[in-house]
Structure formats: structure tokens, C-alpha cells
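task queued by scheduler; priority normal; single chain, no ligands, no partner chains; default sampling; output format set to C-alpha cells
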Amino acid sequence: MKQIDKIEFDYIFNIPDKEEMRFHIALDPKTLNCIPPAEAETAKWAELENEKCTNCPLNSKQHKFCPIALNLVNILPHFTDIYSYQQTTVTVKTPGRNYVAETSLQRGLGSMLGIYMVSSGCPIMAKLKPMVRYHLPFASIEETVFRAASTYLLGQYFKHKKGEPADWSLDNLVLIYEEVQKVNMAMAERLRSVPAKDANINALIVLDIFAKEMPMNIEMSLKPLEYLFEEQ
């Protein structure tokens, strides 16, 4: 495969009666961590101990700031005066193709926040990095379930090839998404301490709906997709 210096995504928001907003996201191709902009800032609400996730494995002595919050601190202020239901045109430029959607701000913002959260360096969210490598903007719940299960099983295949125990039952995938839910809940509490309208918080709620779909009942979530494989 061709070597690349970075993986890049561009999110462009066109909201009626507002100036166009552009966000450039660059990921390290090896670690899939977000490459922070030179003008990255910090904020009190982003400190690790502020509404710290109940399952956070980080120590505030080594990590003053929550890695997710630090990734969002320059992004969220752009949306503090906009309601989540505001209709907007969102264009996403990804490696290889572009996407355009007429959608609510919370859905477009939620799609972008998903990249920032997974690529932040948070040990909990890091387990979803294979999905962010092939990011699919505006994915439906069905698409997300399909991609999550497929990506996870591919990871288990690689474990199997190396002689390691593989989880073909998807039990650990359920646990991963249960942990992700805890992160989403804590991040929502963080954002409530920041004066703003509801776009930022509701974007997280959209992400949390997707996270809840997996652990509720993995077999029930995947059952409607079984027909796709009847010819195999």
C-alpha cells in the first residue's frame, strides 16, 4: 500500500445566515491519533478531573487534561450559539471521495466529533480506531452495526492468524461499547459546564445512541443483516 504522511478529512458546514465553517482533521497514519493544530489551546473544563469518566484509566498526575476534551477544546466554541436542530449542508472530504448531506447540525457535528474522540489518545475510545481509519460520514445505525461487527471480526481474524485466542462470539465487542457509553455520558456532563446552546451536547447524544445499539443485544442488532449472507 502507498505510504502517506497523514490521513486527512475536511468537514465543511454551511448553515443558513452564518459564515461557512471549515474543519481540517489530520491523523497520524501509524497511530491514527489526531495531529493537533499549532494553535491548540487548553481550558479548565478540559482538565482530566472535571467530570472524569468512571472507567478512565488515566492518572491526572501524568495527564492534566482529558485527551478527548483537549481534542475538542478548539472545535466546540464554533457551535455554542447554534441549536442542534438547525438544518445545514455538510460536505465531508475524505481520502478517495466526498460526501454531502442536507441534515441537522447535531448529525453532522456528531459525525465529525466521532473522529476527534476516537483519535484523541483516549485508551477507551482507541479500540474504535480501525473504524475511524475508514470513516463513513453520516452512517445510519444499521451501517454502524455492520461496520463495527465486521471490523471487530477482522481484528479477531488477525489474532487467530497469530495464534492468539479469538472472540468469534463478539462478547468483547459488547464490552467495548459499554465502556464507550460511559465515556459519552461523562463527556456530556463536561459539556454541560460550558455555556452554550444544545448542539454540542445533542451531537454527543447522537453518538451515544449508536453506542447503545451494540451492547443492548448484539444478536438482535445483527439478526436483520443475516439475509445479506444467505447466498454464501
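post-processing summary
- The chain has seven helices and four strands.
- The radius of gyration is 18 Å.
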